[in-house]
Specification:
By secondary structure, the protein is mostly helical. Among the domains are: 1-99, no CATH class; 379-418, no CATH class. It has helices at residues 2-6, 14-28, 38-44, 62-70, 76-88, 90-98, 102-115, 119-133, 136-142, 164-183, 186-200, 208-234, 240-266, 277-285, 287-294, 299-302, 305-326, 337-351, 373-391, 413-417, and strands at residues 47-48, 59-60, 146-147, 162-163, 403-404, 408-409. The strands form three sheets. The chain has a two-stranded parallel ribbon with strand order 1-2. Helix 13 (240-266) crosses helix 17 (305-326). Keywords: Lipoprotein, Myristate. This is Dymeclin. Belongs to the dymeclin family. InterPro entries: Dymeclin.
Length: 418
């Protein structure tokens, strides 16, 4: 049915869209408990037709559904339906992760995130991505899947021979910066940071663009915080309102610096550093940035575990490079990029000799996305009804009499936008 309505050249599917909205409305109305909602119960009991040996009425092809949704993730309705499957149907999520198709699903999802300017739609798509990368086996595989061709819709830079894991990190880091400057949504920031953290826990051969993007983000926030400090130094003592405002911004930037240092520090563990020499190279290349951080007036930042680990690693590898260079007796010698990588690899082997028990270094924790059932029910009931009203402009809705769940009065799309 969905294939019939969606797999066409047209970009408008009024009957399919309204059918999905009706389905979502029935699933998400009332309590999130399956005992109170027979529609949700039936939805959660759907079985994958591809795995079913005998004929059954309550079946659907999960692989076909993923392919259809992957072609339309730039639309709000498809993102809502996918989010519903991801959060409510564990078997669907298992099927998706076990046979994750990067061309048909992962890249379309990343493109939807990259091109989206709606914070609510971003939340749905990021939540879907989070549910995928929070699985260790998937996060690990993403770093070994290499993209041989350039991604045409990514316009910031020409990227080739980059892993899917590094690609996700680059796109999500870009969204973090965009959220800080435009949306200022705490939920988006939390989702983005936890996605990057989960991927960094299993990083392998991080692409230089991913590590450079992380360092540049840190540099940006360090400069922002330094600018705020300069403004505070110039500010008159009696201007309390402006001082409170600037102190709030400074606190926010220092928190951002802490978070990025934490992400970098993840890669400096005995398990990950030997696999990611590019991270150490990027840190060495930004030595001046970390020299300025070493003299930062905020003692909590200076003494944080992540900051001290990074500074310690930088000091160690600087010493390794200096020692190797001093022992080189060539008359003409150039410190090339290749030679620096050799020094990093050698230093990593000396610092972290291989041990028989690798489980000691396996990540013990990572972030998982868990939906608050009560808040989700209140949000979805209202949000989906608003979309229904918006997508049925041919209906003569009596807006003054129409009431959404939880007694929230509905308004037309035009009124809502105003």
């Amino acid at each position: 049915m969905m294939e019939y309505f969606v797999a066409t050249e047209t970009e408008v599917f009024p009957l399919a869209d309204r059918g999905i909205l009706l389905l979502l409305c029935l699933i998400h109305t009332n309590s999130r408990s399956t005992t109170d909602n027979v529609f949700r119960h039936a939805f959660m009991e759907l079985v994958d037709r591809d795995e079913q040996q005998t004929a059954s009425v309550n079946t659907i092809s999960f692989s076909q559904l993923v392919n259809v949704l992957g072609r339309s993730l730039d639309t709000e309705i498809s993102s809502l339906l996918l989010y519903t499957f991801i959060t409510l149907h564990e078997e669907f999520l298992n099927t998706l992760c076990n046979s994750l198709d990067h061309e048909l699903f992962t890249l379309p999802l990343l493109r939807a995130i990259y091109e989206c300017n709606d914070p609510t739609l971003l939340f749905f798509n990021l939540s879907t991505l989070h549910k995928i990368v929070e699985r260790p086996e998937v996060a690990s595989t993403l770093h070994t899947t290499i993209m041989d061709e350039h991604i045409p819709w990514y316009t910031e830079r020409y990227m080739i021979d980059i892993s899917m894991g590094s690609t996700i990190i680059v796109i999500v880091l870009r969204l973090i910066s965009k959220n800080m400057s435009t949306y200022r949504e705490a939920e988006l920031q939390t989702l983005c940071l936890s996605i990057v953290f989960n991927l960094m826990q299993f990083a392998s051969q991080l692409h230089q663009y991913a590590t450079q993007t992380l360092i540049l983000m840190l540099e940006h926030w360090v400069k922002k915080e330094a600018f705020i400090q300069t403004e505070l130094d110039r500010l008159a003592e009696d201007d309390e309102n402006e001082q409170i405002k600037l102190l709030g911004k400074q606190k926010m930037y220092i928190e951002c610096i802490h978070l990025v240092l934490g992400l970098i520090s993840v890669c400096l563990t005995p398990r990950l550093l030997p696999q990611n020499p590019q991270m150490m190279y990027s840190l060495l290349h930004a030595s001046s940035l970390f020299s300025s951080l070493a003299n930062h007036p905020d003692l909590a930042l200076q003494m944080s575990d992540d900051h001290t680990r990074i500074q310690g690693m930088l000091a160690y590898f600087r010493a390794i490079i200096d020692q190797e260079e001093e022992s080189n007796n060539d008359d003409v010698h150039v410190l090339s990029v290749e030679r620096v990588f050799e020094y990093i690899q050698h230093g990593s082997q000396v610092l972290f000799p291989k041990k028989s028990n690798e489980d000691d270094y396996y990540p013990q924790y990572y972030y998982k996305y868990e939906e608050d059932s009560q808040l989700a029910n209140a949000f979805f009931g209202q949000y989906i009804w608003q979309r229904i009203v918006e997508c049925t402009s041919d209906f003569q809705w009596a807006y003054d009499k129409l009431r959404l769940p939880n007694d929230v009065k509905a308004t037309s799309a035009a009124k809502e936008r105003d």
